[in-house]
């Protein structure tokens, strides 16, 4: 649960404040067969693939030592919708959001440390989703830049142009 407090009410036709109290579950959902399914309710959090270079440069967590490091995988998605906040983004570190477009195929890499150490998957990768299931995504750095996409396929290596390549966080 989280609570907000209003310091100043909106004026001059401004939008009303969001709910002052929000409640959310902890996503510990299980199917009737006992399989975890909370991942279906969480959006994929993505950032530019350029951040991947920085990941490789930094020291990796001890859980991902060089002896056991997973190479990862790539998931291709077809973008279905996105908020107008993506195209309006002009901060230097967030301009990558302007390249997300409806109908485009994008590649999203799953690499350590974004991989879950238990199942070696990234949250929001569409595991078990067919091409008809609409999944949600959100850009890291601008929570208003978000949208939906459908999983095309999972592949070993990403092959999208740099401007349409992202990574899970």
Automatic annotation (TrEMBL):
Pfam families: SBSPON_C. InterPro entries: SBSPO (IPR039942), SBSPON_C (IPR056801). Residues 54-163 form the SBSPON-like C-terminal domain. This is Somatomedin B and thrombospondin type 1 domain containing.
